[in-house]
Amino acid sequence: xxxxxxxxxxxxxxxxxxxxxxxxxxxxxxxxxxxxxxxxxxxxxxxxxxxxxxxxxxxxxxxxxxxxxxxxxxxxxxxxxxxxxxxxxxxxxxxxxxxxxxxxxxxxxxxxxxxxxxxxxxxxxxxxxxxxxxxxxxxxxxxxxxxxxxxxxxxxxxxxxxxxxxxxxxxxxxxxxxxxxxxxxxxxxxxxxxxxxxxxxxxxxxxxxxxxxxxxxxxxxxxxxxx
Length: 227
What we know:
5-stranded antiparallel sheet; Protein_kinase_ATP_BS; Ser/Thr_kinase_AS; single chain; cyclin binding; 26% strand; 3-stranded antiparallel sheet; ATP binding
């Protein structure tokens, strides 16, 4: 455990293990010592505080989740707290404290034995996913980066939408860029520059359904001929 993690452990959160790492920083599984020792996920974010200010992805994620947190929707990951760990003239290190979920959809699918996920389970997971998306859209939130790595699955099979770094809270007059979703989870019409937001979402959901019922992608990269 690094010095910053140890410093954090001496306060409210006791780090148990590192569970992820990316360009933004690291993610730790930890115990919340002030709330009965419940497990949480600590997302450590390095924020550049230069002339450009904080990265939009960090601001968006915090703003969106704070906006949604009061509703405590069962299919959206909860943000419990935002802590400032340290700050210099050029960099602020934040810790976003989320509810802890053991696995994402990719990990869940990799654990399922043959012949795959039962049809009733697929229906239930798709229903939960649609319910979560409907909740977001009813509060004018567009996720914009739906993929299995951003869909968490609890041990009881509950679906949680996560990672709102590319999300937007939109107005009806606001034009959103549709070219955001990761390559393999884009709707087919995207490749012909004819995609709308609802078509993009339907395309993503179709890929999820196919991924649950049989491993693989709809598209094979080496065979894609797109002008």
